[in-house]
Amino acid sequence: MINLKQFLILLVGLAISPVFGQTAIEYMETISGETKAIQKDMWDYTSTVAHGKSARKVEKRRSELLKTSLEAIQKVKAMPAFDGSTAYRDSVVDFLQVNYTVLKVDYAEIVNLETSSQSSFEKMEAYLKAQELASNKMRESAQMVRNQQKVFAENNNIDLLETDDALSQKMKRASEVYGYYNGVYLVFFKNFLQETDLLNSMQNQNLTGIKNNSEKLSRFAEEGLEKLSAINPFEGDASLVVACKEMLTFYKDEAENQMKAVIDYHEKNKSFAAIQEEFEQIKEKNRTQEDVDRFNNAVTAVNEAGELFNATVAALNKEREAKLNNWNKVVAKFTDSHVPKGKA
Fold first, then answer.
1. Looking at the predicted structure, is the pLDDT value of residue 2 above 50?
2. Cα(341)–Cα(344) distance, integer angstroms
3. How far is CA 219 from the centre of its chain?
4. Which range has highest mean pLDDT (132-146, 167-181, 310-324)?
5. Alpha carbon of 116 to those of 107, 130, 178: distances in Å?
6. C-beta separation of 105 from 147 below 8 A
7. Which of 143-147, 175-179, 204-208, 305-309 has the lowest mean pLDDT?
8. Radius of gyration, CA atoms only, the chain
9. What whole-number distance in Å separates Cα of residue 180 and Cα of residue 294?
10. pLDDT value of residue 114
11. Which of 73, 84, 241, 250 is least enclosed by beta carbons within 10 angstroms?
12. Contact at 8 Å (CB) between 79 and 20?
């Protein structure tokens, strides 16, 4: 978003036409004062979400911002024309209305999308895309204000020295950081969801599901690692990509190597169940030594496979927890390091 007071206004020393006692500079400052307040509140809202609180948890703040935005629109709308022109005033009204609509409509959708975003890659992608589109709408409307501000300044002999203030710098910075983060996060999230499907198959003892989901996880991890190799560090900070690579390397090893013990156990357990059923159908007096040996060998095989299965699952659980904890810590440190905090 563009802060309307991102320009240092210098009077050229010529007479300025008054409007109800206001000079052109005072007129601009009156209008920009309204937008400044709204943009500070917008930054506070988006910054709070960016640093850990979900959009749904700060719904009360959004409702308050909707109210102040509407009040700002009404105040600027009520201002008179300056020297017969309302172009600058109307551009600011349009900008405020776009912000109001984005808050009322777009962020309502974002809140709804957030609720289901964890359920599928497509929904997460839509959730992040909705945030990007909302931001783009506000940037485009702010550019319109900037253009009209320049026209107003030229028509009233005001020099504008373009310079970014603290708020616009923070907003620009946050956009850059989260644009980078989202690209890496989607690579992680695709694999995270696929592993979830794999773990559900294990929970349900679905051997076919375990095999199919293992193959998909291996493929997704390989594709993700290839994508990550093309992502450069963010201003020299490679921590996010490195942590994501570690997660995907874990997923790849889990799918291609560790699942062998899991699959072997389920196959041996299935085989044992069939052997046990056959064995129990033979009357004890009719059982041959071969029947007994076959059954005992099956017991030994499934027990050994079970021990390896338990050890493998325990090791995977421990490593997964460590890797996910590290990923979450790196994400938090990355955003805390690169995204400005607090009010402008």
1. no
2. 9
3. 23
4. 310-324
5. 15, 13, 20
6. no
7. 143-147
8. 31
9. 59
10. 84
11. 84
12. no
Tokens encoding 52: 């850990």
Any idea which residue has 């308050």 for tokens? 64
Pairing of strands 7-11, 158-162: antiparallel
Phi, psi at residue 176, to the nearest 5°?
Answer: -65, -45
271: pLDDT strictly greater than 70: yes
| Number of Cβ within a 10 Å radius of residue 303 | 12
Q: By the 8 A CB rule, do 83 and 156 touch?
A: yes
CB half-sphere exposure, 178, CA atoms < 13 A: 18
Highest mean pLDDT among 112-116, 142-146, 264-268: 264-268
Region of poorest pLDDT, from 95-104, 240-249, 278-287, 306-315: 95-104
Q: Name the DSSP letter for residue 79.
A: S
* 289 C-beta neighbours (distance < 10 Å), count: 7
DSSP secondary structure of 279-298: HHHS-GGG--HHHHHHHHHH
**pLDDT of 17 above 50:** no
How far, in Å, CA of 168 to CA of 145, rounded?
A: 14
Q: For residue 278, give every residue at least 6 positions away whose Cβ sits within 8 Å of its Cβ, in sequence order, or none.
A: none
3-class DSSP state for residue 215? helix
Q: What is the pLDDT of residues 74-84, one digit of tens each?
A: 999 998 888 88
Higher pLDDT, 94 or 261: 261
Q: What tokens appear for 342 in the block?
A: 């607090």
User: Taking the CB of residue 81, how many other CB atoms lie within 10 A of it?
Assistant: 13
**Closest among 218, 244, 214 to 229, alpha carbons compared:** 244
Neighbours of 262 (CB within 10 A): 23
What value does the mean pLDDT of the chain take? Answer: 84
What is the model's pTM? 0.79
Dist CA 247 CA 245 (whole Å) = 5
- Paired strand residues for 8: 161
